[in-house]
Every structure is written in C-alpha cells, then in structure tokens.
Amino acid sequence: MEKKRVLWLDIAKALGILVVLLVHTGKSFGPVSFFGGMFYMPIFFILAGMTFRYKPEERFGSFVKKKAKRLLVPYFGYNLFLFLFFFLKNDLLAGQVSAESFFPLLGILYSRNCLFPMDSPANVYFMQILNAPTWFLTGMFVSYLLFWLMMKAAEGKLRTAVYLNFGVLLAAVLVHYLCPVLLPWSLDCALYAVSFLLFGKALSEKGIVERLYRKPGAVLLLAAVFAVLSWLNGSVNMSVADYGHSMILNLIVGCAGSLLVMVLSLFLEKHMGLLGKSFGFLGRHTLPVLCLHLFVYSLIGTALRLLGL
Q1: CA-based, 20 to 30 A from 245: which of 18, 34, 60, 308?
Q2: In this predicted structure, what is the pLDDT of residue 3?
Q3: What is the DSSP letter of 238?
Q4: Biggest distance spanned by C-alpha atoms of the chain
Q5: pTM (2 d.p.)
Q6: Which among 129, 126, 120, 143 is positioned nearest to 42, based on CA atoms?
Q7: Distance of CA 92 to CAs 4, 85, 87, 102, Å?
C-alpha cells in the first residue's frame, strides 16, 4: 500500500531544490546563496531521516535492494544518458574518439566531483559532463546503509542510536582530517550525513516541527542563531567535503536551517493553498531536476547564444 505523502515535506524538498538551482546558475544571489548553501544539502538528508522507518523484520539485503532501485538505477540511468550525449556530440561525430573520451565513465564509477579537496593544486576532476550533482544519489545510498546498520545495532531505539552516532560522527571527523582524498561514493560525507538522518528521525518521532510552528518566538530565536552561526562558520560545500570552519558548527547550522525551512513549509501548506501545492508538486520530482538541471541550463544557454542573446 502506498504511503500517504505529507505536503509540507514535499514543499521543503522543493525549497531545497530551488536553492540548488539558484546556486548552480553560477550567479550570486547574496544572502539567498550564502544562507541557502547552509541547508540545501542537509535538508534532503534530514527529510530522508524523517521518512525512514526501521523494520526489525526487514533484512539488510532487502533494504539495500530497495534503496538501490530508488537511487542507483536513476543514478546510472541519467549518467549513461549524459555520457552518451556528450560522447556522441564531442567525440564520435567530431571523429576524435580516444582513451580520454571514456574518462567520464571513471567519474561515474567513482561518483565524486574530484579526487582531492577543491583547493588542491593537483586535483583530478571526474564529473565533467554536467553530472556533478548526481554525487548526491550515491552519497545518499551509502548514508542510508550506514544509518540502517546503526539503527539495527540500536534495535530501533532513538536514544541508543544517539549514543552510537557519536562514534559514527567521530569516524567522520577522523576520515575528513586524516584521509587525503575524497572517497568514492562520498563514503566520508556519508559518515557525516548519518547525523543529519538521525536528526530527521528525532524530528519525526518527537513531532518537533509541528511543535515549533506554534511558537513564533522560538522560531525567531532559532533564525537568529542560524544567521550568527552561519556567519561564523562560513560558506560550505558538502559535495567536496568543505564544511566551513567547523564540522560540528556546520552540523548545527545545517540542522537549524533545515528546521526553519520545514516550519516555513508547514506555513505554506496551511496558508498558501495553490502555491503550497505547486511547491509540493516540484518536491515530488526533485530527483530528475537534480540530475538534469545543469544539462537543461546548457541547452538554454546554447539556445540563447544562437539567438544572439
């Protein structure tokens, strides 16, 4: 039986993907770009945690298969499309097929934007066929598996999972500072993202979003804390393991910003009618938007150039 969708959760996804679209235009939108960058990736992990249901009777293999169908099939499908498009356009039709023509396949398999952190002078850039955003699908897949294993060890108990998460978070910090390369399938990022999944799980079990919505003073205080801590931590980019000045501070900022967006989403559901439903529609289709928006941007840019604009 299909689960009943919660509109404000879809609205929150829509707000997150809209920030992604703005940031990936390559233009600066001032505070929207800066503060949006604090939550536009964490919110998807947190929302995933909110809808996660641990089932003691479910086998790990069944869970892996379910998430592979949801995340890996689209990942390889969209990436194969992009590879074939650019291989045909840039190499085959131009008669310039070489070993380098197949390098994007390595990027698809490694599923990481680059090998080293972005400021490395000797970096290797993998995902160069407008497929960089798709790292999120494999990263989410690995995060889900780690989170399931942690919940299994905790026997589904939230309090026990919180204790276990300290060890997972410590592992994430150690890998970040001791490992010189960005790991395939965002394994290093996935260890970190488990904390966001757990936060989402706690929000769901405790009904925190609904309770916070009824306390405007607390919302304003949270917004002030989010703004100050965001400024202290600086810009972030989870895809390349850039967490600003502090991984812990970024964790707090990501959770706070996501929580604020969820409260706003609940407001849109209750008071904005058609607008809320429109956002909800977008939120139900964030996966293709995430995977193909850079490609669409490229097509639009080409069309504008042909028109002399």
Answers
A1: 18
A2: 60
A3: G
A4: 65
A5: 0.95
A6: 143
A7: 47, 10, 6, 11
User: Would you call 125 helix, strand, or coil by DSSP?
Assistant: strand
Identity at 217, one-letter amino acid code: G
What lies within 8 Å, CB to CB, of 120 at 6+ separation is 114
7-23 and 42-51 helices, crossing angle to 10° = 160
Phi and psi based region of residue 308 (left: phi greater than 0; alpha: psi -120 to 50; beta: remaining)? left
Grouping H, G, I as helix, E, B as strand and the rest as coil, residue 242 is: strand
- Could you give the CA distance from residue 37 to residue 254 in angstroms, rounded to a whole number? 9
Query: Is residue 146 over pLDDT 80?
Result: yes
Residues 104-120: tens digit of each pLDDT: 999 999 999 999 998 88
Residues whose CB falls within 8 Å of the CB of residue 17, separated by 6 or more in sequence, listed in order: 40, 282, 283, 286, 289, 290
Alpha carbon separation from 48 to 42, 53, 193 (Å, rounded): 10, 10, 11
194-233 CB burial, b ≥16 within 10 A, e <16: bbbbbbbbbbbeeebbeebbeeeeebeebbeebbebbeeb
Domain ranges across the chain: 7-302
